[in-house]
Specification:
The complex is a heterodimer. Chain A has one domain (7-28, 39-330): ABC transporter involved in vitamin B12 uptake, BtuC (Orthogonal Bundle), CATH 1.10.3470.10. In chain A, 77% of the residues lie in helices and 0% in strands. Chain A contains 14 helices and no strands. In chain A, α3 (52-86) runs parallel beside α9 (214-221) and α3 packs antiparallel against α11 (234-256). Chain B is mostly helical. Chain B has helices at residues 20-42, 50-57, 66-100, 112-126, 135-154, 161-185, 188-199, 207-226, 228-235, 238-243, 248-270, 276-288, 292-316, 325-343; strands spanning 4-7, 16-19. Chain B has a two-stranded antiparallel sheet. The longest helix of chain B is centred in the N-terminal third of the chain and has 35 residues, at 66-100. The chains are: A mainly alpha, B mainly alpha. The interface between A and B is large, with 55 and 57 residues.
């Protein structure tokens, strides 16, 4: 049940998605709180004069568009991998406790250490995400061998525990809540080039690993026995998958905070187009995730201009209606 | 068969097979629940010894003339609401997990909680002057709107569990996004209040709440418990269920309706207490196995125990500061669940 049946259609679709992403990136550079004309935008690239507009374009808008695209791609690919690994369509990176761990670490850093810079948040977020994922993976492999079922339920339980602790801090400490609520909604406002360079290695390695694992994940989704029968060392592949997810989702959370929806939903959208083969699902997911986050970010800046909405709110508002439509049209039986 | 009792009264008109293990677990959990209620009622500004609590519950005059009033009017409703809400959420979760064959299904995931949460948070943040008494009906409306939308959008000549869940995920994301919007831009004081509601708390519950909740609870809990055979059949797949003589669409509709109604009435009463709907069924499954005849009642009791103990812990741990029980359920429940996972790691 897929929309794109032939190989040519799949390649064309991928090109179309790439083109769409390019359009979104251009729009993201063109539109923003400050009104800058198209020619001035082009001027900022070809004829850099150091004016205020040029600075806005070069140091704010371009990095921001790139960050949005990378974060979107990373979250979506992480979601696709974890759904394949757990063979559960409701899994998302949150199932490894990544978002809950990051949120608790950041809230804790604000509450205990009084941290207040995005760079510190990024550090704590990544550490929290990694620790949470390691604990979940540990429980998932209890008694030898990770079964998807154990991973999923252990992850859900641990994520619930961590987010309860976060809520406890926020309820009893209004100052922390005030400080951190915008970050907790997921946002890429004010992220600069430096922050991007800090997490770029994680995201890049994660994406490369992910694309390299496409064939193995497809085999895993057919079941443990089939994968083993095809000559796969499944425990090793699983471990690599988890590492990839931590790199991607941990890096994304470190930059943008816990942006929901993308990791859960974009893989399904990709599946509606390309079916069950992860060699195609992963690139489509990456491009569509990037498109969703970049366009949600544009909407987040424009809807209540000059006030900005958290992009985590807009991803769902932009993406959910389309997703519901697709689910209604495409899921039969 | 070992460990099972067959009951066939009325010359075989009614036939029941009881799993003795489920019966034993149920009895133990019921005892723990009762103990939890007694402890919950006894603890407070004006402590009452457990024995006097039990006497007062049964209307026996004991040492202090005030005991009867404090126990039955002031404190009992809160403990009972905790048990009812926990049981309702747990059964709602068990039904959804059974129908969708998915371990992650819960009222939270199909947007019922998110709808209730959005309505309540909107009321708290955008209309701070409105009395808190309107919160339960508003939350119930929110949940109902999502449930109706879910059904209308997911129905295409027949219902499919996959479509139902995916559309639920979409609706849930929409409602959660709008809630986050309220939380990010609302006045900080009201946002604090909204967070407490979103966490779930049985603070200040009275008999009035019980009488509002009870009809829903009684009707839909009985439907759920009586349809367990069909849930077992549907859990094996539509073809098997049809082969076993279930009217698939009808039974599924009835079960989804019960699940939604139980979750919505629970959330309207106590806020979105998370974790119970998702985890109580898993805990129950590890205690008595996957057959729904035993699983549903044991889930209900597990949920009741979880919330009543969580409320007790929330009131006593950092007294006089009260921690909403929605926080404690996960803090206490998750380690217990992970322990169970560890104990049963060989399976």
């Amino acid at each position: 049940m897929r929309l794109l049946r032939s190989r040519a259609a799949l390649v064309l679709g991928l090109l179309a998605a790439g083109g769409l992403l390019l359009l979104c990136l251009l729009a993201s550079v063109r539109f923003g709180a400050a009104r800058i004309g198209t020619w001035d935008v082009i001027g900022a690239f070809v004829d850099y004069g150091g004016s205020e507009d040029d600075l806005i374009i070069r140091t704010l808008r371009v990095p921001r568009a790139v960050i949005a695209a990378l974060v979107g791609a990373a979250l979506a690919v992480a979601g696709a991998i974890i759904q394949g690994l757990t063979r559960n369509p409701l899994s998302d990176p949150g199932i490894l406790g990544i978002e809950a761990g990051a949120a608790l670490a950041v809230v804790g850093s604000v509450f205990i250490l009084g941290a207040s810079s995005l760079t510190t948040y990024a550090l704590f977020a990544f550490a929290g995400a990694a620790v949470a994922a390691a604990v979940v993976y540990g429980f998932g492999t209890l008694g030898g061998g990770m079964t998807p079922m154990k991973l999923v339920v252990a992850g859900a339980a641990l994520a619930a525990l961590l987010s309860s602790l976060t809520t406890a801090v926020l309820i009893f400490n209004q100052r922390t809540l005030e400080e951190i609520r915008f970050w907790l909604a997921g946002s890429i406002a004010g992220r600069d080039l430096e922050l991007l360079l800090q997490v770029l290695p994680y995201l890049a390695v994660g994406l490369l690993l992910a694309f390299a694992l496409g064939r193995q994940i497809t085999a895993l989704t057919l079941g443990e026995d089939v994968a083993t029968g095809l000559g796969q060392r499944t425990a090793w592949v699983r471990f690599l998958c988890i590492v990839t997810v931590v790199l991607l989702a941990g890096g994304a959370v470190a930059v943008a905070g816990p942006v929901g929806f993308v990791g859960l939903v974009v893989p399904h959208v990709a599946r509606f187009f390309v079916g069950v083969d992860y060699r195609w699902i992963l690139p489509y997911t990456a491009l569509l995730g990037a498109v969703l986050l970049v366009s949600a970010d544009i909407a987040a800046r424009l809807v209540l201009r000059p006030q900005e909405l958290p992009v985590g709110v807009m991803t769902a508002l932009v993406g959910a209606p389309f997703f519901i439509y697709l689910a209604r049209q495409r899921v039969k039986g | 068969m070992k460990g099972r009792a067959i009951i066939r009264p009325y010359g075989g008109l009614v036939s029941l097979r009881l799993d003795m293990r489920a019966v034993a677990v149920f009895a133990v959990l019921a005892l723990v629940t009762f103990g939890g209620v007694v402890a919950n009622v006894g603890v407070g500004e004006y402590p009452i010894p457990p024995l006097d609590v039990v006497l007062a519950l049964f209307g026996v005059e004991s040492g202090d003339a005030n005991y009867g009033f404090i126990v039955n009017v002031l404190r009992l409703p809160r403990a009972l609401v905790a048990v009812l809400v926990g049981a309702a959420l747990a059964v709602a979760g068990a039904i959804l997990q059974g129908l969708t064959k998915n371990d992650l299904a819960a009222p939270d995931i199909v947007g019922i909680n998110a709808g209730a949460g959005l309505a309540a948070v909107t009321l708290i943040v955008a209309f701070p002057s409105v009395s808190a008494a309107y919160l339960p009906p508003a939350a119930f409306c929110g949940a109902t709107v999502v449930a109706v939308a879910l059904y209308l959008l997911a129905w295409r000549g027949s219902s499919s569990p996959t479509r139902l869940i995916l559309i639920g995920v979409g609706l849930s994301a929409l409602a959660t996004a709008l809630t986050t919007f309220m939380i990010t831009f609302g006045d900080i004081y009201q946002v604090g209040q909204a967070l407490i509601w979103l966490t779930g708390s049985v603070y200040g519950c009275s008999w009035e709440q019980i009488f509002t909740l009870l009809p829903w609870f009684a009707v839909f809990m009985s439907i759920a418990l009586l349809r367990f055979r069909h849930l077992n059949a549907l859990n094996l797949g539509d073809e098997v269920a049809t082969g076993l003589g279930s009217r698939v669409e009808f039974e599924r509709g009835l079960l989804v309706l019960s699940s939604v109604a139980l979750a919505a009435s629970a959330v309207a009463t106590a806020g979105t207490i998370g974790f119970v709907g998702l985890m109580a069924p898993h805990i129950a499954r590890r205690l008595v196995g996957p057959a729904h005849g035993g699983l549903l009642p044991v889930s209900a009791m597990t949920g009741g125990v979880m919330v009543v103990l969580a409320d007790l812990a929330g009131r006593t741990l950092f007294s006089p500061v009260e921690i909403p029980c929605g926080i404690v359920t996960a803090v206490v429940g998750a380690p217990f669940f992970l322990y169970l996972l560890y104990k049963t790691r060989k399976t």
